[in-house]
What we know:
This protein has helices at 4-23, 29-55, 60-87, 96-114, 120-128, 137-142, 146-177, 183-211, 213-233, 237-251, 254-265, 271-283, 285-300, 305-321. It is mainly alpha-helical. It comes from Fusarium oxysporum f. sp. lycopersici (strain 4287 / CBS 123668 / FGSC 9935 / NRRL 34936).
Amino acid sequence: MNIGQRWIAFMCGGCHALTYLILSQHPPYPVLVLAYVLAGLGNGIGLAAWNSYIGNLARSNELLGFMHASYGLGGTVSPLIATSMITQANLGWYDFYYVLLGMAVLETATLTYSFWPKTAQKYRETVHTEGTRNEGTRAALFVKPHARVVWLCAFFLLGYVGTEVALGGWVVQFMLRVRNADPFDAGMTAVGFWLGITIGRLVLGMVIPKIGVKLSLMIFIPITMGLQLIFWLVPQFHVSAVAVSLQGFFLGPMFPCVIVALTMLLPRHLHVSAIGFAAAFGGSGAAVLPFAVGAIAQAKGVQVLQPIILAILAVLFIIWLGLPKIEKRKD
Length: 331
């Protein structure tokens, strides 16, 4: 790392702040798309840096669960705030970005202040004591046995993130068209899903260290598959709403578990490269899988969501079994 966590913190928050400043001005559509590229850059920087940093701390399962729960909380609360601003206060959609701009400025200030002592020189000194400094992305991706772990985790996150975003994005349409729910109830189903993710990351994050990372997902994935079958095969709105919320609960801790697995299976000097690649590769699932589901839904109907999600979960279970044994961390 050539710039240190100090400037990583500034760049991460700065990308978010600049994005929301642009979007709050109600720009034309091409500018909006480019602004979101900048937001994605900030997200990518933050994912690699903070997952790697927290993954090396004591009680990393709980801390990562808390950090990623804040993501789920944002996914739960933000649509409610934006909807209220638009429908109750008669504001434009772009006015919501002033709220995000204020939060991004606070993010930039607090992160930069917190990591100000973390210079590039201090990071290199830490890494030098634990591994070879000239190893990086190439060693993580192409040198065995580390490459096997990184690629398995990357493909796991590809499927996981795609499942999370596809469910969160398409569940409203499924409830409207297949379960014949009214618009408000259908929207609350999505809120329940994201709330389940938030609570799952907080609650199960406390349980995972006691049973181990590897065993935890070997339990959570089959439970999620069972809930997916209930969601698919029981044609009752309330049953489907409860099932999808519980799916969120058990899906929630999977992303933090993968990050912890990477930090436990790889030497520290590969953590930033490996986690950055896996998170970026997995993040592409948020674009690819929902788009694929949408394309199929246009031709076959939104009910195709359920068997697709079930198949992806089965693949995730097989991928997870392919990882080496992960010892319990004694923090």
